[in-house]
Amino acid sequence: MNKRLFVLLVALMSLSLIGIISVQFLWIKQSVEDKEEQFSNTVSEVLNEVSSKIEERETKDYFERYINIKDSVGEPKSSHLRNIFFIDRDINSNEIRFYSHGILEEDYNIASTFFDNGNGTDTITTIKNYTSKRTKTIFKEDYGLDGKEYKLNAVQKLEKIGGLSAIEKAQFEDVFSEYAKKVPIHKRVSNQEIKLLLNRELKNRNLNIEYEYGVYSRGLPTKVKSRKFKFAKDMLYETPIFKDSEGASNFSLLIAFPKKKKFLIQSIIKMALLSLLFTLVIVIAYSGAIYQLIRQKQIAEIKSDFINNMTHEFKTPIATINLAVEAIRNPKIIGDPEKVDRYLTMIREENKRMHAQVENVLRISKLEKNQLDISKDRVDVHDIIEDAIAHVELIVADRGGYIETHLNAARTEVLASEMHFTNVIVNILDNAIKYSTDAPRIDIYTEVAKNYIVIEIKDQGAGMSKAVVKKVFEKFYREHTGDLHNVKGHGLGLAYVKKIVDDHQGEVYAESEKGKGSTFYIKLPLI
């Protein structure tokens, strides 16, 4: 994949993911705000309903007390009527409609303690009865023969005597409200009544939440409040209570919800968690996709390096073999047995070298497919180390280096494949030799840690960065050093080591610092 296209694809996917996450968080934020607005509207309805019911109850109490006093007094001693007249004439039908509406006021003229002003004194109050009287009369105009005389005939007359109209009743209630203003608030409404009404109205609207309430008079607290009520302006809902005819009031009913935020969050928590879960799935899937894309790109680059290295390393022995064959074909050389033997030895060694490279590739492939037959026997780790050293000591000596052993483990027997485990040690030693810029200096240590034997192979070579140490056991991975072929290899040796050690239920890891050498540790379970 083109690098520019890859970067563009990752950028577009990242922007899409950020957009999805942003939309999710905006949705959650908007849901909380909508719930809060809905909650506020519902609470306002509750407060208005509670306030109305308290006012209705107070008015009803006054009416009942008024009726009881009136019934106990008997007939009124005096009365007078206030009438309102209205005349309407219909020209087409020659009819005159006469409307009359009167309020009959009957005075009981007695002293009463009907209204309690809260100071313990009696108030002289005139108890009166009001009756509404409505009359409707229709007159017909009849003219004489000469058209000069006419008379009125009563065609219809309706008369109704009953209670007061809504307007009259409102006027009557206004009288009560004026007197009620003198009564202390704790005698007009009780904590039990407010709590009962609030509980009922909140339950009817499915608001199961703790609350605190209080009645305030012109911003000052009264005795009517819940035990834990505290004034906090930004957390309160308020409505006027005991309003007069003009809608004004000296008292306010306040309610607070200490756990409002928790209640609002709980109302959308299920949907929010579900949304976050799906967002998390998308993030994980996206991260996995990006990781795989980057991984595939790295593998493509590594395989490309592997092919280049393999081509280079096959090209050299092939060229050597061709030169040796051409030399042998020379009549002067073919007559010299010593030179022929030397060229034949070169051909054999180069052929073995190519065969070993192919075997490495095939061995790793079989390991990954679990097709490599590994038979394990009781072996001595020290013997395997000595055998592996024998494979590379001539190379080390040729470069003027050394391999020293410090085999201090008291127990050394493990269950392992002698051939494969020897290859493991050889591969690590070969790596230490290849990456030593000067003469290779290698130390091998062994020790027992609980039920494990630990093999430590320490060199003083070029070393590795932390980033390289993390990837050094990956297949085809090789550290980029500027010149692709300055150190021969395919990135398969340490991958093979990792596979074999894992198959032996062991552990292999490395420690290194750039310019200060590397140390490889192999940990195997003892028998």
TrEMBL record:
<dbReference type="InterPro" id="IPR050351">
    <property type="entry name" value="BphY/WalK/GraS-like"/>
</dbReference>
<dbReference type="GO" id="GO:0016301">
    <property type="term" value="F:kinase activity"/>
</dbReference>
<keyword id="KW-0418">Kinase</keyword>
<protein>
    <recommendedName>
        <fullName>histidine kinase</fullName>
        <ecNumber>2.7.13.3</ecNumber>
    </recommendedName>
</protein>
<dbReference type="InterPro" id="IPR003594">
    <property type="entry name" value="HATPase_dom"/>
</dbReference>
<keyword id="KW-0597">Phosphoprotein</keyword>
<dbReference type="InterPro" id="IPR036890">
    <property type="entry name" value="HATPase_C_sf"/>
</dbReference>
<dbReference type="InterPro" id="IPR036097">
    <property type="entry name" value="HisK_dim/P_sf"/>
</dbReference>
<dbReference type="InterPro" id="IPR003661">
    <property type="entry name" value="HisK_dim/P_dom"/>
</dbReference>
<feature type="transmembrane region" description="Helical">
    <location>
        <begin position="268"/>
        <end position="294"/>
    </location>
</feature>
<keyword id="KW-0808">Transferase</keyword>
<dbReference type="Pfam" id="PF02518">
    <property type="entry name" value="HATPase_c"/>
</dbReference>
<dbReference type="InterPro" id="IPR004358">
    <property type="entry name" value="Sig_transdc_His_kin-like_C"/>
</dbReference>
<feature type="domain" description="Histidine kinase">
    <location>
        <begin position="309"/>
        <end position="527"/>
    </location>
</feature>
<keyword id="KW-0812">Transmembrane</keyword>
<keyword id="KW-1133">Transmembrane helix</keyword>
<feature type="transmembrane region" description="Helical">
    <location>
        <begin position="6"/>
        <end position="28"/>
    </location>
</feature>
<dbReference type="InterPro" id="IPR005467">
    <property type="entry name" value="His_kinase_dom"/>
</dbReference>
<keyword id="KW-0472">Membrane</keyword>
<dbReference type="Pfam" id="PF00512">
    <property type="entry name" value="HisKA"/>
</dbReference>
